[in-house]
Every structure is written in C-alpha cells, then in structure tokens.
Amino acid sequence: MTQQVLGACPHDCPDTCSFVTTVQDGVAIKVQGNPAHRHTDGALCTKVSRYTERTYHPERVLYPMRRTGPKGSGQFERVSWETALTDIAARLAAVAQRDPQAILPYSYAGTMGLVQGESIAARFFHKLGASLLDRTICATAGGEGLTQTLGGKVGMRVEFFAESRLILIWGSNSIASNLHFWRLAQEAKRNGARLVCIDPRRSETAEKCHEHIALRPGTDAALALALMHELIVHDWLDHDYIARHTVGWEALRERALQWPPARAAQVCGVPEEQIVNLARDYGTTRPAAIRLNYGMQRVRGGGNAARAVACLPALTGAWRHRAGGVLLSSSGLFPVDKAALQRPDLLAGRQPRTINMSTIGDDLLRDGSAGFGPKIEALVVYNSNPVAVAPESGKVVRGFAREDLFTVVLEHFHTDTADHADYLLPATTQLEHWDVHLAYGHTDVLLNRPAIAPLGESRPNTQIFRELAARMGFSEPCFTQDDEALCRMAYGDRVDFSELLANGFATLALPDAPYAEGGFPTPSGKCEFFSERLAQQGLDGLPDHLPNYEVAGSDPRHPLAMISPPARNFLNSSFVNVKSLRDIEGEPVLEICEVDASPRGITSGAVVRVFNDRGEYRVRATVSQRARPGVVNGLGIWWRKLGLDGTNVNQLTSQKLTDLGRGPVFYDCLVEVALA
Fold first, then answer.
1. pLDDT score of 571 more than 70
2. DSSP track, 292-309
3. What residues pair up with 194 in beta bridges, in sequence order?
4. Which residue, 132, 310, 340, 389, could crosslink 354 as a Cys pair with Cβ 3.0–4.6 Å?
5. d(CA 396, CA 388)
6. What distance in Å separates the CA atoms of residue 341 and residue 336, rounded to the nearest whole number?
7. Which residue range(s) make up the domain with 360?
C-alpha cells in the first residue's frame, strides 16, 4: 500500500518548506516538495530531498545507550528505557535537592518545531526550577536590532521580492541558505531588476548577482551609514514618510552626515565609487528591497549593523510599495501562544539564573560563586550539538569532559556532543512525529504529520520529557497532553487547524504592504531611528558603526580576519554524516586568496595550520577567488571528529558577545595561516 503524508521541514532555514513523504508498506521511500505550497513550489534543497537517507541512516541511534568508556570516547552499551529514565530522574532529583539551578537545559534549532522544541521540555525545566538558557547562538543580535528599530522580527512579505526593481542581498548566500527566496530574486532579475550582493565572501550567490560588494567583516553599519549620507546629500528621501512614520530623524541625519563615502570606503575596504553608485541606485530605484540575513550580525557591532540597515527603507519610503522594504525575519508576525506551550507559570515565582548558550565553554568550567550561582552539575542537551557549534570549542570540550558533570543527550546520531553523554537517548526524526511550525522567511504556518512509525525504540522529545516528568513526580495535567493537542494549542483559534490538517499549511492574513502607512509594532508605532528603550539602558539610541573586537591590522601576529560561513550542503552541523552530501563537500577547507596564499607558500590542497591565541586548527587550503584579500573563509560546521586533527573551525572563535542581544561573534576573529 502506498500513501502520501504532508509534512514540514524542521531545519533552521528561512524557507520552512512543506513536503510530501511517499510511504510504501510503512517505509518512507521519497520526500518531495509540496507543489500546492506556493513558497515551496514543489522544490526542496539538496539536503532535505535526501531526508529518507537521514532517517534510515545505518548509524542512527535507535536504542537508549549508557556510557561505558571515558567521556568523549563514544563508547556505550544498550540499556532499556526503564533503566535509563529511572537513573536519569534519580540523578536529576539528587542535584535538584541541592539546587535545581545546577541543572541546565541546552537546546536550539535542531528542530524548529514548536512542539518538539520547547513545549513539554520547557514545562519540565520550569517545574524543576532549572537554570534558564539564553538561546543566543544564531540570531539574537540581528533580532534585537530589528526589534529596537521596527518593533519586532517583522518585515516585507517575501513573495513580493519578485516585483522589486532593485534587491540588495545583504549578508546572505541565498542559493545555499534561502533557496526559495533566490527563485523570487531570479524572477525579478528576469523582469529587469538589479541584484547586488553585500558579503565579504564571493559566494555562489554573489557570483550570480550583477554586483558584489566584498566589504570587510563587521563593517556593514559603516556602509549603511554612508548610504544614508548620500541619500541625505542628494535628497533621495521621502520627507513625508519620514515626518509621519519615523522617530529620531534629526539625530540620525546628524550621525549619517559624519559618514561620507570616502570614510566608509576606508573602513569597509571597498572602492568609494562602489558606495556612491549603490546609494544612487538605492535612492532612485522604486521599489527597492533588502534581503538581510544573519551572517552580518555575528560580530561585535552586529545589532547596530542590523539597526542601521533596517533604517534605510523608511528614509526612501520604500515601505509604501509591497515590493519595497527589508526582510530579516518574519517570525514576529506569527501569533504563537508560547506561554500556553511552555508554561512559565510552573516556575511558581522562582527566578532561576539565566546562562548564555554562547558562553557554555567558560560556564561549564566555572566553580560556584556568588556572581554565577551553583556550579553546573547536570546538563540535558536536545536539538543541538554544542561541542561542534559553540564558540571556543577547546573550552567546550574540556567542560563536557568533566567527570563530575552528568550529561544526557537526545539525538539521532553519535555527534561530537553525543560522544560525551552519560546517557544517549534516541529521538525521532521529522518523519516520525507530530509538530507545528512558524517560518522566518515567509508567513505560512505549517503542520507536520508523522509519516512512519518511530524506528527502533526512538521516541519524540515530548514523550521523553513526559516520562521523565512522571518519574520526577510531576503530576500536573499539562505533562500528559499529547503531541496533536500541543499542535492545536500552539496557535489556538488564531489559525484554522482543520486547514492545516487538510493542506499542511495555512497563510496568515496580512496586508500586502504592512507598513505603507507606518503602524510598526514599536512603542511609538513608528520606525524608530532613535530608540528611547536603548537610551534608557545607557546605550546609544542611534545606530552606529562599532569596530570589531579583533580589527584586521590590529594584531601583527594574527593579520587575517576569518569568517566561518556554512558549507553549502550542510545546515550548521546537521547532515554532516549523510554520505551523499559529505561526498559533495569532500572535506573541511579554508578558502584563501592568492594575495594572502602566495607569500605564505600556500597552494591549493596544502594542509595548513590556522591559529590564534585560542587554539589551532589543521585543514586543507583552497586558493580561491571566493576569499577577499585579508580575509579567509573557514567553511563550517564539520563535526570535530571528521577534521584532520579532531577539531573544527570553532577551535578559533571567541566567546565574546555582541553589542545587542548577547549573541556570539563567530565572524569577529583574527588568525594566522601557515603551512602545517
């Protein structure tokens, strides 16, 4: 018997595709894009089109496992669920009796699902009184910058990029990480639109745009301010829109006039003429749209940079057109009832400390103190692989290797993090459970139905936390709600669940041009060039360029800036073990331009040492025009165990945090490169 089941891609990508799984006699044989969903349009990326290969992977974890060897060795024995859950509950209870804040959950976007992400899991840790996790590792700097300017993670509707006449693709390799937007950009291009890519790396996307502006990492705010300078000097402004729908114009005008193109060209390392021409194009083309992505905010001044770029559409009145404005994330438009799903009321007035996931390396190595609170004694990891993805991973590994740290990992595979677990629990994949999703690149809600029965003894995250809750004696009815009920609860009556069941998706009812007449979700209802909220925190109310912590040229021992954009066929550290995708990528590489390679005696294929004061990483070099002078590109995020010396690029990144949003600064990193 053959049937087709509607589902949704769970991965950390703006596209949130609707897919159809073909199931024959209980076995999933094919995953395809849903042709009925306009944003997916029947097409999936290379990664997710191989989803059956991931689900039926021969190395998949299918049974509960208990560690038998040293931490990090990956040596385990199979145990029963009863044995695993009973022991885990007892050990967590013992820690909680001393201080529940010594327990830390660690999770992120291994699934973006609202149910398998933070529903029963959040309830469990709230009831326990565990430390809270500040989930910062990807997007908080840009998200906070957007929120301080536009009022939330909101923007133009993605489908109308197809009608734009000028598209700035800023800090995004859309071909690799936002495929369905790229199709819209191509449609606009065929209709005569001009495409400009702003990115330190000459990515696959940059190659296919009309122009590539290869600025230095961390200089995006300087470029945005210089664009404002030119808009003001040449009066390419919509004075009516500015007067009626913005706050802080005079102060922003004064700030921008301090940034002539010549100054920005010096900072950004690009020709002055390129900035002048871009400003003219942006100021005189209607409608003009900006697709901003998260690459540009992974530096010290990332929040300010997002703020500066988000100001541009209000200056020119681009918001008046449905094909004008800016889009970084649309997730703030979704009416999710997070409180109902996550039940923060279960804290019952307690206020546990919050630990930033981006500083987990330092925090796992801390002893208890008055400023920090109790030493972290127990760690429960789900939907994440911190040993591979967290910055300054040498410290992360040392923390996870602590013999006195009790670690539970819910996983599909023996990742770098799973190798350090005391208990490794088999989680279901997207083909095996219920979930409901929002998107951050479009405005449709998606439902995922289970297409097959869970393989082996794998269980959904929700079920694992329900059973732990029962063994901990948590008797509240909220711990017995099933996954379909949670899916219905996520949006309540704000989304028609029968439509989700029938189609797999439902479109939010939104105006074509949501901010044509202002109405931003800020306190003032206007685009806030000046943020009173930031000023009250003692911060600059205006966007500004903040130089990187590690400015190129400031350290002669480490003269090269390094960024670590994702490899095209992986998604962060997901899919690294899918053989067909790893065969396409080949091996970890460092892209370096001829100008920097030649004096170091480096040729393509040579093994090089990439190093700074935080660590060293051995990798094969590729001499490539994708790297601009002074910048090397360490493509990530490979599992450490697949690297030449058991490390990856995060051996070199730092645990410093961004100006806004407390995010990591992965692309604010100086290194030196030498032949190994």
1. no
2. E-GGGGSSTTHHHHHHHH
3. 166
4. 132
5. 9
6. 9
7. 65-137+347-434+451-472
